[in-house]
Automatic annotation (TrEMBL):
GO molecular function: peroxiredoxin activity
Protein name as annotated: Alkylhydroperoxidase like protein
Membrane-crossing residue ranges in chain numbering: none
PANTHER family attached to this UniProt entry: ALKYL HYDROPEROXIDE REDUCTASE AHPD (PTHR33930), BLR3452 PROTEIN (PTHR33930:SF2)
One Pfam family cited in the UniProt record for this chain: CMD
NCBIfam families according to UniProt: ahpD_dom (TIGR00778)
Gene3D superfamilies: AhpD-like
Source organism (scientific name): Pseudoxanthomonas spadix (strain BD-a59)
UniProt domain Carboxymuconolactone decarboxylase-like: residue ranges: 25-107
Length: 125
């Protein structure tokens, strides 16, 4: 039986962000606008941008980032092979600490992939 660590983490973080949304609406609206603008498709597509975001999450050791971007990578159709290759670059750039977080990033992606497959009735290969 698998854990829902990253699903629980992102749900918990979202609950705590409600207080920030209520207490700092301008800051949160500004951050939301920044995120939408940065992630909007342009020369780079959304999947490429999410792969970059996950790599940065690994490099800066942001556990919550791994959850949110792992979920987004599933949504935009990233493959496990793409995620693994991106993690190789993140480890190369960040050394040992990034290697440890790369393992967590893969865990987040795989967890959200299993959840998406369960919702659609797909069977893992």
């Amino acid at each position: 039986m698998s854990s829902n660590r990253y699903q629980d983490l992102t749900a918990n973080t979202n609950q705590h962000l409600i207080s920030l949304r209520n207490g700092l609406p301008g800051v949160m609206q500004g951050f939301g606008a920044l995120a939408r603008s940065a992630m909007a498709p342009g020369v780079l597509d959304e999947k490429t941008k999410e792969l970059i975001a996950m790599a940065i999450g690994v490099a800066v050791r942001c556990e919550d980032c791994l959850g949110f971007h792992g979920k987004a990578l599933v949504r935009v159709g990233a493959t496990e092979e793409e995620v693994r290759e991106m993690l190789g670059v993140a480890v190369y750039m960040g050394g040992g600490p990034s290697l440890m977080y790369a393992a967590h990033a893969l865990e987040a992606f795989e967890e959200f992939s299993r959840a998406a497959q369960a919702k659609t009735g797909q069977v893992e290969r």
